Amino acid sequence: MSVRVELPEQVLPRWRRAVLKVGSNLLAADGGGLTPRYAEALAAFITASHADGRQVVLVSSGAVAAGRALLRQHAVDGGGLAARQALAALGQAPMIALWQSLSARPVAQVLLTHDDLRNRRRYLNARATLRELLALNVLPVVNENDTVAVDELKLGDNDNLAAIVAALVDADLLLIASDVDALYSADPRHDPAATPISHVPVLTPSILAMAGGSGSVAGTGGMRTKLEAAAKAAAAGIPTALFDGRDAATVQGLQHDRLYGTLFAAASSRMQARKYWLRHAPAAAGRIRIDAGATLALASGRVSLLPGGVLGAEGEFHRGDLVEIVDATGRPVGRGLCQYGAAEVRRLAGRHSREIESVLGYSYGAEVVHRDDLATVSEMEATT
């Protein structure tokens, strides 16, 4: 029975930026190595999305499988940490080469570790790099840096990594391409009465209990990790779509915002979740004073705070801290994550963005507070 009979057609939520996770089972050839068999349709979806003015970040598995294939003439024990790290290092190049061969746009490899996401400065640097790659119309291909990760600090699997990246880049949608077509009420491999679930409004404990383990030796995750990823994305206000990446027609349907799979709803809209966090998270002791023009600009819509509108900085705060933004009289205007520390903001006050590097000797970007990291008073009142 075809997927269209078993699963109803759904309309994907509106999106401008998505994270697409592709599992090892879709890339590993039966005899080892990588195959474009299923990747071609997924690459075509990415190309069509780019043509529509959308942005896609790809989180791709397959490096370990590719590395294992390169050394299949040797007896490599893939169970130990050092062996897995070696296989990952070997397989990264062919995995990136596969995606580059299928992409008309340049492909950039981005390797992340737990420390990159735990350390606020490195987190912001990773975020800025991904934003810049998207602005340059490059396809970022993200993976965990297995070569240097240690077990106790590993992100674990690419499903959860994809959810973290979706929040990192402020994605509107998380897409998980799998070797199953949907979430089922039970494991369909063992229970013939299992039925697909097309829509999950809330991830309850009973839903999580439906998940099984990894479906093959090529992958490190399973349905459980996909549900964990959907839960992380939902908490960040990002819906998740799970679908069969082996079915070319299903993948092609995504180009027209049609989903045949399972749609996990977000807890709230991405912007609502973001603004709510900015409204309620504890702020640093310092604050930024801005002039009347910047106050008016921030109140009028989604604009960033630039150095030219800054009058000064009070107190002490560091790059990445959440700070209060006030007008010249001290009246609250908003809150945001500052790209620069207090001492740097004081030096940049009133300057043009193009002067940042000449003043500081380096630059973290043209904005003191990026619009995606800023909530104005009116926006905060709406989420209270």
From TrEMBL:
Which InterPro entries did the record assign? Answer: AceGlu_kinase-like_sf (IPR036393), Asp/Glu/Uridylate_kinase (IPR001048), G5K_ProB (IPR041739), Glu/AcGlu_kinase (IPR001057), Glu_5kinase (IPR011529), Glu_5kinase/COase_Synthase (IPR005715), Glutamate_5-kinase_CS (IPR019797), PUA (IPR002478)
In this chain the PUA domain maps to 286-369
Query: Matching Gene3D superfamilies, A to Z?
Result: Acetylglutamate kinase-like, PUA domain
Q: What is its main location?
A: cytoplasm
Q: Report the subcellular localization.
A: Cytoplasm
Residue sites binding substrate per the record:
S61, D146, N158
Q: Does the keyword ATP-binding apply?
A: yes
Quote the Pfam families the UniProt record gives.
Answer: AA_kinase (PF00696), PUA (PF01472)
Q: Where does ATP bind?
A: K21, S178, D179, T220, G221, G222, M223, R224, T225, K226
The superkingdom listed in its UniProt entry is Bacteria
Q: Which SMART domains match?
A: PUA (SM00359)
Keyword Manganese in record: no
The record's EC number reads 2.7.2.11
Q: Which HAMAP family match?
A: ProB (MF_00456)
Q: Which family does it belong to?
A: Belongs to the glutamate 5-kinase family.
Q: What is this protein called?
A: Glutamate 5-kinase
From which source organism is this entry? Rhodanobacter panaciterrae
